[in-house]
Amino acid sequence: MQVTDLQGAGLYIPYDRLNPSTITEAKYRLLDTILALIGGALSVPKDELKSLLTVTNGVPEIRPVYPAGLKTSLEMAGFLNAFILRNAD
After folding, report:
1. 73 lies in which domain range?
2. Is 86 exposed, middle or buried (0-12, 13-18, 19+ CB in 10 A)?
3. Full-prediction pTM beyond 0.85?
4. Amino acid 1: pLDDT
């Protein structure tokens, strides 16, 4: 299923029809995620992340959130970002 198929599946709700408390809660969740990403990036040893970056099956093409300046595959960047988030959770 493509993201664009969500509207056809009945999962699309226009922004103006959302409850204001739902929007506020989504903003809090987004802010919490950003702060956890920052906190997790500061608490994970950089050497450990560098060793994970080298475990790629593809050509390094994208930069994860941390460590800055290093590239890895798209899949590993997603994994590292999630790893950092869970580390701070």
Report:
1. 3-88
2. exposed
3. no
4. 54
| CA gap 59, 62 in Å, rounded | 9
Q: What residues contact 73, with CB distance under 8 A and at least 6 apart?
A: 56, 57, 58, 59, 60, 61, 62
- Count: domains in the chain: 1
| CB environment 12-40: b (16+ within 10 A), e (fewer) | eeeeeeeeeeeeeeeeeeeeeeeebbeeb
Q: Which residue has the higher pLDDT, 38 or 26?
A: 26
Both structure tokens of 73: 């595959």
Say if CB 62 and CB 71 are below 8 A apart: yes
